[in-house]
Amino acid sequence: MEYRTLPDTDLNVSVIVFGSPANGGFLSGEKQNGIEAIRAAYRAGVTTIDTAPLYGLGAAESLVGEAIACLPREKVQILTQFGLRWNIGQGEPFKSIAGPNGKPIDIVHNATRESVIAECEASLKRLNTDYIDLYQMHWPDDFTPMEETFEAVQKLIDQGKVRYAGVSNYSAAQMAEAGKHIRVVSDQLHYSMTDRGLERQTVRYCLDHSKAVFACRPLEGGLLTGTLKPGVNFPAGDFRRGNAKFSDENIRRANDFVRYLKPLAEDKKISVAQLVLRWTVQRPGITAAVAAAGNAVQAIENAKAGDIRLTEKEMGYIDSILPPP
C-alpha cells in the first residue's frame, strides 16, 4: 500500500480509502459484511476510513466504530463529516432520503455553532473514539456564516476532539473563503474518469494552495468496473435503484468506454476497477481515492490498487481515450 501525507500536516493516509456504505447497513446482512470488509481492508494496508453521520442516519459511523474496536486506534485514520442533520427541527432543506423503514426522512443543512458541537459529540460516541482525524463539512451551507461554523470546529481542534479540518463538495472560491476562518487541509470531491469537470478550478486551487483532494465515487457506483449489465435490478435501499444515472442506456455507454480499458487491465493482470482506482490516485492533485466495498473480497480487491503503478505511457493511453470532462 502507498501512503501519503496531507500537505503541512502529520496526517498520513492510505491512497485507497475505505468508504463506508451510504445506507449505513440498512440492507439485510450488510452490517456484518461491512465490519468484515473494514477489517479485511486494514489487513491489506487500508488504514483510512471515510464515513458520515448522514450515511444510514448514524448507522455507518456505528459500524465503523464496531469494526475498528479491535484495531490499534493510532494506526487508523477516521474521516467523518458534519453539517447535514435529520434529527433536529431547524435547518434549511437539503433533500429527503429513505429511512430504515422505507419512510422518507428530511435532511437539512445546519452548521451552526451548537449543531457542529453536538454532531461531533454524537459522532465520537458512535465511532467509539476520543478524536476524529479529519472533520469535514459535508456540503456548503449558505445559511450559516462560515465564521460561526469553523469557529466551532476550531474549538473542537483546541479540545483535542478533532485533529484537522476539511471540507467536501467545496468550490475553489468556497475553499478560499473557508481558509479565512480556519486552516482547511482538504476537499473531498466527486471525481472520476468520466467526471473531471472540477480539475481546472477546484483541483487546481488545491494543488496551488497545498490542499489534499480526496476523490469520492471514482468507480461511479460500479459503472466503471464493467460488471454492471443493462437490466440489473438493484435491491431496495440501494442508492442506484431508480437513479437515472444507472439507466440501461448509461450502463451501456459506460461499458462501451470500459472496453478500451480492458486490454490494459488484462495486460497488467489486474481488474478494470483496480486500473481505474490506480489511475485516479496518479492524477495530479489527487491525494487518495475513496472506494466503497460491500464485503471483504471487494475491499481486498480495492486495496490492491494501492500496490499498482502505471507508467507514463499507460497513463497517457488512458488519458487519450477519456470522454470529455
UniProtKB/TrEMBL annotation:
Pfam families: Aldo_ket_red. This is NADP-dependent oxidoreductase domain-containing protein. SUPFAM superfamilies: NAD(P)-linked oxidoreductase. InterPro entries: AKR_Detox_Biosynth, NAD(P)_OxRdtase_dom_sf, NADP_OxRdtase_dom. Residues 27-322 form the NADP-dependent oxidoreductase domain. The keyword Oxidoreductase applies. Keywords: Oxidoreductase. GO terms for molecular function: oxidoreductase activity. PANTHER family: NAD(P)-LINKED OXIDOREDUCTASE SUPERFAMILY PROTEIN, NADH-SPECIFIC METHYLGLYOXAL REDUCTASE-RELATED. PROSITE patterns: PUA.
